[in-house]
């Protein structure tokens, strides 16, 4: 199929949201193409994005296990695009939160600790403003919030992983199944192997194994999807189509 307005609607929707849940992508593709071959559509969109140094990545959230489509500029640090929207104090807080998450043993930090970081910033930021900003970062998937703690968001993993690896290489573990780097996963009490929660869930669903390394029973999965992971599709295709018609593809920016 020729790349057309239907592809652009999907691209525009992913760009607008930054990270779009797989079930919402599937529903949108069914509405536009009358099939559910997401792999084919993703390949066709990325073929157009590649010359522009952009791509859509499919990434699982380490905390919820949910799969997202994420729009990524492959040559630009996406945090720089936030500079026009947020203050230097807020961005300084975000960098501090990232650093604390990566370097902590549990790879998460409490919301109280995050707010207390305000006192260490060079620029003044009230705790009320910090709380509002961090909530916005959760909505945009740069952070993930669960049980009063902040984890690395799926967008941060998709867009900033190489930076984190270069800066904090020793803090990353390797998933025993997919062999990719991870921060937050399920640890085996017997052999200490660490596995992505979504990888382990897929494995146990198909063959009922315990730990992929030693095959001993694993602790109960800590997979806990957040409320936004179960939201329903609500995209006004006509409105998105109007946006697409007003924006030339060559002007797409991250």
Automatic annotation (TrEMBL):
Species lineage: Eukaryota, Metazoa, Ecdysozoa, Arthropoda, Hexapoda
Domain of life: Eukaryota
Subcellular location: Chromosome, Telomere; Nucleus
Keyword Flavoprotein: no
Keyword Nucleus tagged: yes
Cross-referenced PANTHER family: NON-SMC ELEMENT 1-RELATED, NON-STRUCTURAL MAINTENANCE OF CHROMOSOMES ELEMENT 1 HOMOLOG
A GO biological process held by the record: double-strand break repair via homologous recombination
Subunit and interaction comment: Component of the Smc5-Smc6 complex.
Keywords, ordered alphabetically: Chromosome, DNA damage, DNA recombination, DNA repair, Metal-binding, Nucleus, Telomere, Transferase, Ubl conjugation pathway, Zinc, Zinc-finger
Enzyme Commission no: 2.3.2.27
Source organism: Cardiocondyla obscurior
Enzyme class: transferase
Full protein name: Non-structural maintenance of chromosomes element 1 homolog
């Amino acid at each position: 199929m020729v790349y057309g307005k239907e592809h652009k609607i999907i691209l525009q929707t992913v760009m607008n949201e930054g990270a779009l849940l797989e079930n919402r992508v599937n529903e949108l593709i069914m509405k536009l193409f009358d099939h559910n071959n997401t792999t084919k559509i993703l390949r066709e969109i990325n073929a157009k994005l590649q010359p522009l140094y952009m791509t859509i990545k499919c990434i699982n959230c380490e905390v919820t296990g949910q799969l997202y489509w994420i729009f990524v500029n492959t040559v630009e640090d996406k945090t720089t695009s936030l500079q026009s929207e947020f203050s230097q104090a807020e961005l300084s807080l975000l960098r501090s939160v990232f650093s604390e998450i990566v370097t902590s043993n549990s790879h998460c930090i409490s919301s109280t600790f995050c707010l207390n970081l305000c006192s260490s910033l060079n620029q003044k930021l009230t705790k009320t403003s910090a709380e509002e900003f961090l909530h916005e970062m959760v909505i945009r998937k740069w952070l993930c919030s669960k049980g009063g703690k902040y984890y690395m968001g799926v967008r941060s993993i998709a867009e900033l992983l190489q930076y984190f690896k270069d800066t904090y290489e020793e803090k990353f573990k390797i998933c025993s199944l997919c062999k990719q780097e991870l921060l937050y996963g399920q640890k085996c009490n017997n052999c200490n192997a660490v596995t992505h929660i979504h990888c382990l869930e897929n494995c146990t669903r198909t063959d009922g194994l315990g730990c992929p390394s030693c095959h001993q029973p694993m602790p109960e999965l800590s997979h806990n999807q957040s409320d936004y992971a179960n939201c329903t599709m609500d995209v006004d295709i006509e409105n998105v189509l109007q946006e697409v018609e007003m924006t030339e593809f060559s002007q797409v920016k991250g």
